[in-house]
Write a sequence for this structure.
């Protein structure tokens, strides 16, 4: 008997851990376009947007497309679009296609780059101009004068590095062609060397790092996935990498890595959990959170494996830089002589050293996640993009909010605090399957801007008013954007109440808590005071709404209770055949993290009169014999 009791206890504990582990990957709340404030506007028909830029006024954004710039005002639900005028096309007509949009250090100014016929163009444009004209300047002239350059692909990662009067554009080229790699356009054009035609790479991010002090040590880091050349059955299809180049690199001397990178180094990224034998090798997207001190800058990598699971791993620039500085190189004994630091004059590198550089660029050690930890998030959702709200980190808070887009158009809002993750909510801005191209958050208004090929959607993801069921509901949400002010859930302030780390609703004041419980009971009693008469042997069901998918729902009648699955929208209790045993009071209750509440209450009686219907926002009694029969 004791052995049986022990076995049942262990089983119960394992089941509890299993449920808790699974709930960590389930969105606590689901908000459709009807539940959250969603506004949408059609995009111009000239093509998918190249970049979304937040406006200087609330609810305004600027969308730059392949040939147009459009100002969207969601507050007044209007948009104004104009074709971009290229100054170099005024004298003669020319077709052009904008592929790169970057903000400059000047307010309201953007840098544009793309193809104009067979040539590249580069210019700057003021967004406040009534008729946007993009004009080449002294800084952009070296890029604008590039003839027969690479065909810059729309959607490729790019960064604009400004240093005094000098402007350089770094842009990647993905695929399996000779030009695949990192390219720089400016005063000194530099590109990849020794490209293997059979090599396939897809870049997902570029990150410029200014180390301070000596500008020759500034670098640009690229993140990409590479198709594995190993054809063994148990080999990964993709391999994740980070690559770095020095901004001072101008290529080698004439006929020896001329116009090619001499400082490029590559390192594998690792994302997985060896204890659970999980490994994620396909790098899908990256998001960076810059810090005041560059080694503390974080890179959030979104990965996928061949079993349809997604994961997020976090890396620091300190660890990435240390790997490049200390790891031995692969397959070349002479590589110990290769310099790790950036050099002031790459054209002065000896021919012997250039020969070593040609032979090797990949280091042996892999870059591990911060503190060599497991993925901070891993589940069976097929995520496609990651966006990180860093506004909290700038205030020295210990948590971060991640937004992850799903393949069919959903968006997960995820809390990352210390070593935990918590899926706060799933937003569904579309009533159909949609392919999301980009997401951008206004950190002040908490409005998320989502683009598809045909429309721009604005969604309020700081929707604190959705947590309407008192202090406990607000605290259990663990939403960093929200807090309890004593009467309602509002946008977080210094004085409002919230516990994002543990969601401990016992921090709600006891007098207010007791008053709220009394109010809820009285309200439900008034609704449940109706005696609903049901014919004998009738089939009926009681139903109450499910809000939190992390709560346990159940119907209670006398000494009996019936549990509901929390992944459904309603908690339903079926009465197959009404008799005297089914008479009495029924309560629908939820329990989450120790907080129990009565959602609805109704008293059923058996009689011969017509059926009474109980109405109200929390409970319904329905006579649907045809529905129950179909079950």
């Amino acid at each position: 008997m004791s052995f049986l009791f022990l076995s049942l206890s262990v089983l119960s504990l394992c089941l509890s851990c299993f449920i808790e582990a699974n709930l960590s990957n389930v969105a606590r709340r689901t908000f459709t376009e009807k539940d959250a404030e969603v506004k949408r506007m059609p995009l111009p028909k000239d093509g998918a947007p190249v970049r979304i830029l937040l406006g200087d006024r609330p609810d305004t954004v600027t969308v730059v497309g392949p040939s147009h710039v459009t100002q969207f005002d969601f507050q007044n639900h209007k948009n104004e679009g104009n074709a971009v005028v290229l100054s170099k096309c005024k004298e003669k007509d020319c077709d052009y296609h904008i592929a790169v949009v970057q903000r400059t250090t000047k307010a309201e100014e953007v840098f544009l780059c793309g193809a104009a016929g067979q040539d590249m163009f580069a210019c700057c444009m003021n967004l406040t101009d009534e008729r946007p004209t993009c004009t080449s300047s002294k800084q952009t002239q070296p890029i604008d004068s590039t003839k027969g350059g690479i065909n810059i692909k729309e959607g490729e990662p790019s960064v604009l590095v400004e240093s005094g009067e000098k402007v350089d554009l770094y842009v990647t080229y993905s695929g399996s062609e000779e030009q695949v790699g990192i390219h720089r356009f400016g005063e000194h054009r530099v590109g990849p060397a020794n490209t293997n035609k059979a090599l396939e790479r897809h870049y997902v991010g570029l990150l410029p790092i200014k180390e301070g002090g000596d500008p020759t040590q500034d670098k640009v880091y690229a993140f990409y996935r590479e198709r594995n050349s190993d054809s063994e059955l148990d080999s990964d299809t993709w391999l994740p990498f980070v690559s770095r180049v020095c901004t001072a690199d101008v290529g080698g001397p004439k006929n020896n890595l001329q116009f090619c990178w001499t400082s490029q180094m590559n390192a594998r990224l690792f994302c997985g959990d060896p204890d659970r034998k999980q490994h994620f090798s396909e790098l899908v997207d990256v998001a960076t959170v810059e810090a005041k001190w560059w080694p503390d800058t974080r890179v959030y990598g979104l990965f996928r494996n061949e079993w349809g699971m997604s994961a997020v791993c976090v890396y620091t620039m300190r660890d990435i830089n240390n790997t490049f500085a200390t790891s031995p190189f692969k397959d070349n004994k002479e590589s110990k002589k290769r310099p790790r630091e950036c050099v002031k004059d790459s054209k002065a590198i000896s021919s012997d050293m250039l020969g070593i550089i040609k032979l090797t660029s990949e280091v042996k050690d892999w870059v591990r996640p911060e503190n060599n930890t497991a993925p901070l998030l891993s589940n069976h959702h097929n995520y496609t993009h990651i966006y990180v709200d860093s506004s909290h980190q700038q205030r020295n808070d210990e948590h971060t909010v991640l937004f992850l887009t799903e393949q069919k158009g959903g968006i997960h809002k995820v809390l990352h605090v210390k070593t935990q993750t918590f899926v706060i909510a799933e937003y569904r801005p579309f009533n159909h399957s949609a392919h999301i191209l980009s997401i951008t958050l206004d950190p002040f208004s908490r409005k998320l801007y989502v683009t598809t090929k045909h429309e721009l959607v604005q969604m309020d993801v700081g929707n604190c008013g959705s947590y309407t069921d008192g202090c406990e509901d607000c605290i259990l949400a663990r939403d960093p954007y929200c807090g309890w002010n004593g009467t309602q859930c509002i946008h977080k302030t210094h004085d409002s109440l919230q516990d994002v780390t543990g969601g401990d609703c016992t921090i709600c004041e006891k007098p207010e808590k007791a008053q709220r419980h009394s109010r809820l009971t009285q309200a439900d009693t008034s609704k449940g005071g109706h005696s609903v008469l049901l014919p004998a042997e009738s089939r009926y069901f009681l139903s109450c709404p499910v809000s939190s998918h992390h709560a346990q729902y159940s119907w209670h009648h006398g000494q009996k209770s019936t549990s509901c699955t929390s992944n459904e929208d309603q908690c339903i209790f079926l009465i197959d055949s009404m008799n005297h045993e089914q008479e009495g009071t029924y309560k629908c209750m939820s329990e989450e993290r120790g907080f129990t509440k009565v959602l609805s209450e109704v008293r059923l009686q058996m009689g011969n009169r017509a059926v009474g219907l109980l109405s109200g926002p929390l409970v319904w009694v329905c006579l649907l014999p045809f529905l129950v029969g179909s079950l």
Observations:
- The two ends are 40 Å apart (CA to CA).
- The CA atoms of residues 464 and 490 lie 5 Å apart.
- The chain has seven helices and 41 strands.
- The longest helix spans residues 2-23.
